[in-house]
Amino acid sequence: MPSTPSRPSKGRPSAGLIPLAWQQWPAEARLLLGLAALWSLVGLLVLTSASWWVAEREMGDGAYYLKRQAIWLVASWGLLWLALRTSMRRWLHLAGPSLLVGALLVAATLVVGSTVNGASRWLVLGPIQLQPSELVKPFLVLQGAVIFSHWRRIALDQKLLWLAIFAVVILLILKQPNLSTAALMGLLLWLMALAGGVPLMLLVGAAISGGLLGTASILINPYQLDRVTSFLDPWRVAQGDGYQLVQSLLAIGSGGPLGAGFGLSTQKLQYLPIQTTDFIFAVFAEEFGFVGSLMLLLFLAIFGFVGLRAALGCRSNQHRLVAIGCTTLLVGQSILNIAVASGSMPTTGLPLPLISYGGNSLLSSLFVVGLLLRCSLESTGLESGRPRRRPARPAPIG
In angstroms, rounded to a whole number, what is the distance separating the alpha carbons of residues 183 and 155? Predict the structure, then answer.
């Protein structure tokens, strides 16, 4: 008869938990956690400067946005800790059902969603506004890792099923309309598929299809077409569709080499729109200048380097693709936001992770950080509650 598996003893930590000893963490995990904490703190300070004047004028409380962001930040770090304390195997098991639930929530925004500036992206649940397109990002990474890590061993019907589900999620987000998030998700899945060894011809076909879909969306939605044309020459329509970009460029240019100083931005007072979310980098650049902007880009490069180092240290293809996807999502979205604010890309609605105002973005970003940390910890065998031991050397003879 097969033996019954023994239960873990009370003194032994159960699978999925991690040791609390900081010294047992791999160097990449410790550095990533420190970088995430620094990123969160700097983001809170930048948001304070960007939002204080607007909050004082519109809400009668200069700390209005700061207090709400701080509450969401605490909740988001709690979610990071949950991701850190839960085994990656369990997260990967939950990825598929969670992605399907996320797709249903995105679809619900098209029916009962709250419409702001012509886009239906939010579900209002009492005092809380949910943005499903933000919350679905981590589970897209997880399920993408499940599919692409075993691409050659998965049956054809399973491949087609999940590719169709990925396409439906992206199309639903595109329908909101939210071209920037849909494009980010498509690019993220494409890069994960490339890292997972999906055949090149299939990737080329997916890239062409995505490009055609994006072009069709721009041609169908007049406001997207206006954003693209105004991006090419924003000064021609400086009082129209190019107003946001022109004011952002003026803010960045006003910063000079060293910036005006923390809290001393003038563009945020009355000129720069959406200064707490999509264009918060322009406020940062005006206050910290060219040097500060370079430091931010260097910070993102370091975070990306350490994240990819953690990915290379993973023992399984699934964990490696999760780590690659998490790193790409955080750093890639940051680069896209900065590119929009600096006029390198057409204006889109992507927030700057851990800096822009918004609880949904914070929850999603720090959950992604937690998944990345979990991958790094499991790469050294810490998922069992203790570090992986090396095999004992045989005793010398004689």
Answer: 27
